[in-house]
Fold this sequence. Notes:
By secondary structure, this protein is an alpha+beta fold. The protein is built from three helices and eleven strands. The protein has helices spanning 7-19, 31-47, 80-100; strands at 22-25, 51-52, 71-74, 106-114, 120-123, 133-140, 153-155, 165-167, 174-178, 184-186, 193-201. Helix 2 (31-47) crosses helix 3. The longest helix is centred in the middle third of the chain and has 21 residues, at 80-100. The chain is globular, with a radius of gyration of 16 Å. The two termini are 29 Å apart.
Amino acid sequence: MTLKLTPTRFDQLADALVEQGWFEWPHAVTDALCQALLSEAEHHACEGSLRRAGVGRGEIHHVNTAIRRDEIKWLDGATRAQKIYLDQMAELQQQLNRALFLGLFEYEGHFAVYKPGGFYKKHCDSFRGQANRMVSTVLYLNPDWQTDWGGELVIYPEDTAKKQVEIRPELGKLVVFMSEQIPHEVLPTQHPRLSVAGWFRCNGSVTGKIDPPR
């Protein structure tokens, strides 16, 4: 399975990243792959192998439930569904590097499970000038998402004169945005909300050690 990445669709994605910093891509990933990933995430939730997500990285990483309330499990490529999805992200990485010269080095991602009442306050995925995470992705795994369940992803455009955008977390939808430039948040959800969040990173190696502990 490959991404539904036709030349026209990729041009739309690349142009949107340059012009506004984000792109919403409905039905980017097949229902079959999303359902397989959804089953994995639900299995991890049932067996208790998710862990509470924190904020910050490295030594300043800590849990703060006033900022975010979700649980995560990092992808390790150990299942067929994960391998297929990671291959798709590798394909997207190559295309982005070729078109936009971003120097993306690797991709990391995790399942993100928001239980009812879960949210994530407004934030950016990378601090300006640190250029660790360059491009963020979110793949939604939620079939038949209802409007009154909430849980929208809110995008805050760099141009403050423009209206913020609310994106419903619908099955197969992929949202791609610039990690440093685009503040965003997850509104409180009234229903279990599952996704795969990920980041393309640049090579921030220091003294032979590949960029930072996550």
